[in-house]
């Protein structure tokens, strides 16, 4: 990944001090020649917008909110004024005396409800949208050169001398500050997606911080002061500017490219809303335009590289065939490769290519530039600031438009959204503890909303499952704990949630099975059948492999998990590869195809404990008791094997299924299976609750069906006697016990009648009578 740079000199007669992109991708530049000029994305100046009597130091465009496009920007001037100006150049509002001396920097917050400014007087001031002063947050008595908003609009980040200060806009809140540089801080930026901070200073270094002030990266010193830094909107990379220097860095601070444009000091940097093009203000009067190129995507031997802003080169590594895809009308904004499809979004259109045919793509128009494309087996999602999240099939037909109140498309990235065959999962950024689920076909919100106890930072849906009941979601929270949860809730109304691992850096589902890979605490973990936690948690450790991953370094990211190959990117950008055994994928194909005998033969041939354990869990999940018996015997789980043998003695299918639900620790579902049978297996439901010491529920069922009340009371009496309790303390049992006589001979007779009735019903079912 690098910049394709174009430098446009001499349009301004003096130093260019600031640049900003509009929501519809026009560039506005300010200069010490006291003019504001307008540019196209191709770097052509379309004329002067307006002229001021003072020098402009900073410019900030009013944010675009959803489908409401803004046409207003704010500028700060050396005469201490702040001005609101329309797109046409008309001055809508002028605030005189905003600061004593020059106003150095100003920024709109992310929803346009407030404007913050700093100046030579050392004051930090908050202004309303109409230009009225709300508050003076800070007064430090020396010039402040940079400021930016925090992701939630409730904090500002200020460079004060050599320190960085995080100040809450609400009075009485404690501020956070830390020593950041060895020189005066000149520029800062705080990304709303990844919550990371970058800063540049007179010590000629840039540094990456988390929101608590912990340093994540310090660069080697440049040859001159760092004058501008800017995050790309998606948070995946950022740009750093200095004298005749421009660098493109990923989120960890590692530099992908180092360019030397003839621009003088880059005083300002600004990204387009889609994060693919950068503009810079040069101190020598030039304006630079930089397009990101050489973005690479790989999938099963196919590599797609953006070699020019309007050209993608396809290479089939296995056959060494090259194909160039040209887009003469618009530049490429976003692309994604996987599941046999390449989806490319330009600024106005979307192209869908099948990897077996690069000549005839499906094409449809886009109303706004895409900021994200996510693929699944049968469809894909496009995220933009106009429509939000839109789901299409691979023929270009729109399927749905999932929405919810408070959806902010600009917050969505690959970590906060996931799409599968039937489900879309989106992290609600208004409450980072909530994950919202939507049906792909209709876009309707599902009744199940997953709410965690602390903030969630990453979500991912499994891709292999073909039915909703098999859909699983994993998520990583702020403590780096990895959880797996059912998309569909159980009968109790809540989704089962289980913690898989701690200290997890990155996670990824496999594309052709339900295997799950994660990098955690210096280890590469692969769960061959994560669904085992909902079947038999004791088998989890037997279905997981662990390898040393210290070679991945700090903060590694799993990029892809295709087939048996895992691609991991180190913090310095290096791609490393790891592999898993191919046998679990073959086992998935056999089991999902119902070929249990072949799956058993595969395990006998490989003689792997992990494979046998996966087969045992799959068989238990699929209610295949014969295969489960063989697999449990192979891994010497004697206690579980004996229970399976007991289940096989139960005559009715409902009874067996209910016992399997008990095995899976789902007593409510087990009871529901028994009571929904025709006729209901009341005695088994009562005995199930007695075995689980759920005495009140057993009595409730007996009273409801007016059957076996004496059975419940009899077993309750034996329970109390065994534990040495002479009197009943439960009021319900005391009341009913006074009305019912316990006769064990009658109880035994009824039990025998129940067994005979169940056996005869099974026999009638087999003969079809």
Discrete helix count: 12
Based on CA atoms alone, the radius of gyration comes out at 32 Å
Category by helix and strand content? alpha+beta
Largest beta sheet, briefly? 4 strands, antiparallel
Helix content: 10-25%
Oligomer: single chain
- CATH class of the largest domain reads Mainly Beta
Q: Spans of 5+ residues with little confidence (pLDDT < 50)?
A: none
CATH topology of the largest domain: Methylamine Dehydrogenase, Chain H
Shape-level CATH architecture of the largest domain: 7 Propeller
Give the overall average pLDDT. Answer: 89
Give the strand line-up of the largest sheet. 1-28-27-26
C-alpha end-to-end distance = 71 Å
Strand fraction band? Answer: 35-45%
Number of strands: 55
Describe this structure in words.
- The chain is α+β, with helices and mostly antiparallel strands and 769 residues long.
- Strands 1-28-27-26 form a four-stranded antiparallel beta sheet, with no helix packed on it. A four-stranded antiparallel beta sheet has the order 2-3-4-5, with no helix packed on it. Strands 6-7-8-9 form a four-stranded antiparallel beta sheet, with no helix packed on it.
- The chain contains twelve helices and 55 strands.
- The chain has four domains: 2-293, YVTN repeat-like/Quinoprotein amine dehydrogenase (Methylamine Dehydrogenase, Chain H, 7 Propeller), CATH 2.130.10; 295-366, Thrombin, subunit H (Beta Barrel); 368-580, Methylamine Dehydrogenase, Chain H, CATH 2.130.10; 680-769, no CATH class.
- 18% of the residues lie in helices and 39% in strands.
- The N and C termini lie far apart (71 Å).
- The mean pLDDT is 89.
